[in-house]
Amino acid sequence: MKLVAEILQPLLAIVLAPLLLGVINRVKAFFAGRHGQPFVQPYYDLWRLLHKGAVYSRSTSWVFRLSPPACLAALLTLTLIVPLGGRSTLLGFEGDLVLAAYLLALVRFFLVAAALDTASSFEGMGASREAFFSALTEPALFVALAAMARLSGRLSLPEMFAAVTPGNWATHGAALLLVAATLAIVLLAENSRIPVDDPNTHLELTMIHEVMVLDNSGPDFAFIQYGSALKLWLLSAVLVGAALPTGGLSTPLAMAAAVGGVFLVAVCVGTVESCMARLRMTHVPLLLFTAVALAVLALVFSLRG
Amino acid sequence: MWSASRPPSPRPSHLRRKLSPIMLPLAFCGLGLMLLTGFIALFVRGDKACLRLGAAGVIAGAILCAIPTAQVLFTGDELALTLPWQVPFGSFHVVLDGLSALFLLPTLLLSAVAAVYGCGYMAGHGGGGGLRLGYAVLCYNFLAASMVMVLIARDGVLFLVAWELMSLSSYFLVTYDDEHESVRQAGWIYLVATHIGTAFLLAFFVLLGQGGGRMDFSYPALAGLSSGTALFLLALVGFGTKAGVMPLHVWLPEAHPAAPSHVSALMSGAMIKMGVYGIVRTLQILPQLESWWGWLLVGVGAVSGVLGILFSLAQHDFKRALAYSSIENVGVIMIGLGLGVVGVADHCPALAVLGFAGALWHMVNHALFKGLLFLGAGAAAKAAGTRYMDLLGGLAKTMPRTAATFIVGALAICAIPPFNGFIGEFLLYFGSFGAVAEGGPRLAGPAVVALVALASIGGLALVAFTKMVGIVFLGEPRSAQAAGAKEPGMEMLGAMWTLAGLCVVIGLSAPLLLPVFAQAGADLAGMPLADVAGPVGAAYSALGSVVLASAALLVLTLVLGVWRRRLLRGRTVTEQPTWGCGYAAATARVQYTASSFSQPIVDLFQGVLVSRLRRAKVKELFPTTAGFKSNTTDVSNEYLYRPIFMWIDRFINKMRWVQYGVVQLYVLYIALTLIILLLWKLR
Q1: Are A218 and B568 in contact (CB < 8 Å)?
Q2: Which of A164, B192, B273, B473 has the fewest CB neighbours in a 10 Å radius?
Q3: A303 touches chain B (CB under 8 A)
């Protein structure tokens, strides 16, 4: 039973991750009064990309070619660490949250390096911003996880999330709420969604993620697109794990609730994207500092209790 | 596990001691060999032969010294030797224990590797060659030998002699290219700073001699010692100056870029660790550790770490940016030591052992990857003839091997798995998270500070090192020199490969190495290893899983790479110019520059960085010229030391009237002094 859950968690992530993007797109279409693309459109896109040839920039070196497989490999490894309602994961261990954060750093390192490798000022700009904003989300993420560690007395993600129960919400509601708010901002920033970045356009001077991957094509681009879907899934799973009180439930129920929660997060992301404009670039650091402040507050509340 | 409260036990003074008939003299033979070859190199004709002789001496000496070091590490014995020495207040007392051995191993390794690199680097370096080169080799060998001596000397006088030899030999190496004014200036700042540090160390040893009766490092300071705090603070300032702790770091970003690159690597990788060693040794001999020392160390470490990496980001000079990053890494080590001290003072064995072990491990790791990065930077700068990042670029295509090793070093220093940098920082995170999760407020406080600092440092380090990698090695060359760069010779490449290989090996064999560092951490905390079996066991299984995840990562990367190759087989794969919205004639000048890459962060932290920007005003519609210049000087240099030294300068200027240059007057001074002394004695 335990092993089944452990294997099912990464499988669900791997299979369902692109569907999240489909859900977000449909939600945005709904708000815009359109019918929108099919839910499985992201799968079609990946399929199409995987069957194309490739164009590489003459300016690039081996680093650019290494980047897409390395990024996707790191995200796939992460699916073995981030739980989805289960009480354990295949690779989980005490302190796995640190490894998770630094695997995300690996993805960022290669994306940024590959963008700089194209010798394009657009991509350099995106790379600079990606590195900058992520440097500010990193402390927020760690402090929020420290608050979770304090609340649960545990150091591994599945055990930490298993400790979140309705009773816990009753006693430490404020801290949990603040952690959830922090993780939500981290999710939006790390996945380059509105209000930090706009995934819809490519060439506006304000773009971050989409402009960084401008020179990727064919299977490489498929790896990167699939990787961003996985990243969205994983960070949503972390948010859901920290916020959803699945602690008392049996493993199948908890997993079902977590999957439902992840799609709910996608609906929320789509709603935010439909109702908000992107922040001015100079205001994004303020949002991220807010996230750090919320996380510190959560930690203070959790230390008190 | 983290809240275990034990009654405060007196920290045991050191355990096993074994007199060694051959082992230590073997190390002395090694040191002698280093010095001897250095002296012979003075008389050797031919640059190549001179360099190779010096390097051979260092390698042979390092191997001879490594034998007793390895024995100590594996058996846990201590080697001690006392010889008669005709120096007042001094004795020739040397001890090689576990702590010395842990610092010795990376020092010896880096000395040998950097010496090999130096053979390639210094040949055709300019600066005259011949006798000057011979002196450089002599100084290098002196530096390597004196560092070994610093690590094993226990007597205060012997220690200070070795310390001073180390400082002076490195000063002569820093000023090797003294035809440049900036190098002379850097050397001067280094000389002044290091001697101010030594002054504090003199006071430290005098105080130690008063308290314990002997100016000796291994003399377990007496339990009733009242001056523990004073000793700690003196050590923090004196040794902290060498380690480059903020705000005592001002010499570091000047001296490291000025020195030849293999010397920068040795100074940054090993020599500044002598300062760390001094602080660690002081913590070991003091009978009682206070909780607020730990807070202070964590605070100092957090400030050094965050500011160090911010200043690194704002630099344009490749090696200067690396020098600031060394300050950041010393900050990380200080955070670890601070956590350890808090753990000891507040009776939390888990935090104590994880903090100390993490700090020591990071020290070893930093020696490897920072050495590697400086060697890579030197190779790039030598090939392209400039250290200015905005003139480099595209070196990954002309120097792919150098680029690969540099990228390994950059990944390691960003603490990215599967490389070694992750392991040391993981232990620190692990200890801090544990203390936050289960400890009381006295433990959780510093742990939270450590967590925030480590996370901020991690995020910013990634920006700093993607910038170095991206601007220098990737993209298109920004100047003709950069376009004509060539891969260096085998000596330099071999040195870089060795260090890069070790970064990978340590990362992948972490659980096997953990016992060594856990033992050192437990020794330092004054606890038997059995007392901390819980947290060490948890760290062991965690590191095992980290290695498993790393293996999964590597295998998946390989599988995906192979899959992509299969997918692309038989399809059209073309090479085109970079997409520029249809504009196909973009030159290297449209690339993002190092300054523009880091500009958002530099702007955000303008309050601490105080960068000066100069823009030429654009006037007419189609301007033919425009300009932009930014310069980030060191804040503590500008606003702290410069005013102090200006004041001293003014004061001393006022005292000029005593110096007339008339010999008779000086004789009068001497006579007056003698009379005053006589009167004072007769009184």
Answers
A1: yes
A2: B192
A3: yes
